[in-house]
Every structure is written in C-alpha cells, then in structure tokens.
Amino acid sequence: MSVFFLRGIASALIAYATRALPSTRATWGAAMENELEHIESDLEALRWAAGCIAAAYLQRSAERSFGAILKKPSAFLPVAISSSEIMMSSQRYARVVKIVLAIPLLAIAGISVFVLLIWVDHFRETTLPAPTSWMSLGSAPSAIRPVALRPCSSATMIPGARRASTWTAPPSEPWFARACRSPSYS
Amino acid sequence: MARQAGLWQYGYELSKQTGLKSGTLYPLLIRLSDQGLLESKWQEPERLGKPPRHAYKLTASGLALAREIAAPEKPVQRRKFAGATT
C-alpha cells in the first residue's frame, strides 16, 4: 500500500476528528491536526489520526453532544474506527477486537483457498471407471430410442410416451454389442 | 510531565513517553486544562514548512497534585492494613 495513500487517509481522518470535536474545542482540534504534520512515519500518522477521532467522540460524549454527530449516516465509518481504537487501547478488549477482525479475514482466506483448489483441480486429468451396467441419466418429455444402442439407425420418437428415462452406454464395451443384438431393440 | 516540570512538551512526544494513544491522551489533556492543572501555548515549529505545535506544561497546582499522587503511602496506613489482615 502506498505511503501517500496512508498519509491521505490519515489527513482525511484528522480533518473529520477536528470537525467532530465540539466547536468550543476548535483549538484542540487544530493542535491534533498540526501534530500530525510532525509525525514522520505514515503508519504512526494513521494511528494518531484514528486515535484523534476517538478523542473527539470521547470529548463529545463528555460534553453530552454525542447524539448530534451520530445522526449523520456518514459518521458510521469514523465511529467504527474510533470504537476499535478505544477498545484496542484497553488491554481488556484488545483480544476481543482482534478476534472479531480475524473472523472475516479468515473467512476470506478460506474462500480464496477453496476457489484456488477448484481452479487447480479443473486442469486435473480424470479417468472414469468402466461402466458395469446401464445408467439412467434422467427423464425426457418423450421417449427417444437410444441411438447409441443402434448406431446404424437414427433416433426415433415413440409417439404417445410422455415420460421415459434416457439411457446411454459407451459403444466400445463388449456388452454393448450383445445389447445391440437384443430383440427388444430390433 | 512532572519529571520535566519546566519543559514544554508536545502531544506526540507525550504519547510516546507515556504509551498512551492520542485517543486517550487528548481527552486527559483537555480535562487537565479545564481544571487548571495544565497550561498550553502555540509554539513556532523548529523546521520550516511545518505548522506551529501546541505545547503543554503542568501548572504549579498540577505539579503539586502530580507529586502528591506519586508520593509513597504513609507507614501508618500500611500498619493498619497489616493489622486488619492478621
């Protein structure tokens, strides 16, 4: 991930934090925002900005002006970030947050591995076992005399038949020749 | 801050020294400032092109409170506690 991207996210978060602070605390918002410019590491800056959102919401809750900002639907993401930041700052809840974050990540990883295995298996050569008996493939709206059993004749419809099973067999099998000679298919 | 009583310190430095994240540190600083235990001022940056920084220092009353909290418990209290448990 680009460092400029992280810095950009941090700047956006800190701008939100300054707006989320009560208007009487504008000086503190400017203090947090200016301090971000003095942090060299972009990852540290991102953590700092997320913490500042938590600070802004804590201050709002302390001054009982918390509800106003929550009425905005766009506040969901910063609230989620700040909540996780608050909980991560507490040793008691850090494990819970990590587990909650790990579950979707593990699910995504598991699904990815499953799709990869299917993709790899797609190229695998498979030898089918030799058939030992007739096999019903399904039902058809009308009966078709199986052309596979009579290679010399074309498939013919049986009038009046509404449902019948369709059958198939590989012509190379020895028992296929015997079936072809059967009087029931003549 | 009590150890470096005369020095102005910045938020990020305090965060690193105390191990507190900004989400915990700033509400504390705001509360201390409201109670008159902390004073703050804007300082010009050391490097050009950077914005001014908000610096913090404990007031006299803040310093006294910090020293009171950091002071060890009195021996009388320890004896009472020991007597209660035996």
Strand order of the largest sheet of chain A: 1-2
The CATH class label of chain B is Mainly Alpha
The geometry of chain B reads as: globular
Largest interface: A-B, 27 and 22 residues
Overall strand count of chain B:
3
> What string gives the helices and strands of chain B in order?
EHHEEHH
State the end-to-end CA separation of chain B: 40 Å
Q: Under CATH, the topology of chain B is which?
A: Arc Repressor Mutant, subunit A
If strands are numbered along the chain, what order do they take across the biggest sheet of chain B? 1-3-2
Describe this structure in words.
The complex is a heterodimer of chains A (186) and B (86). Chain A is mainly alpha-helical and 186 residues long. Chain A has 7 helices and 2 strands. Chain A has helices spanning 3-20, 26-36, 42-62, 66-70, 76-89, 91-122, 174-180, and strands at 135-140, 164-168. Chain A has a two-stranded antiparallel sheet with strand order 1-2. The longest helix of chain A is centred in the middle third of the chain and has 32 residues, at 91-122. Chain A is elongated, with a radius of gyration of 35 Å. Chain B is α+β, with helices and mostly antiparallel strands. Chain B has one domain: Winged helix-like DNA-binding domain superfamily/Winged helix DNA-binding domain (Arc Repressor Mutant, subunit A, Orthogonal Bundle), CATH 1.10.10. Chain B is built from 4 helices and 3 strands, in the order βααββαα. Chain B has helices at 11-18, 22-34, 60-70, 75-85, and strands at 9-10, 38-43, 53-58. A 3-stranded antiparallel β-sheet of chain B has the order 1-3-2. Chain B is globular and about 50 Å long. The mean pLDDT of chain B is 82. At the A-B interface, helix 2, helix 3 and helix 5 of A face helix 1 and helix 2 of B.
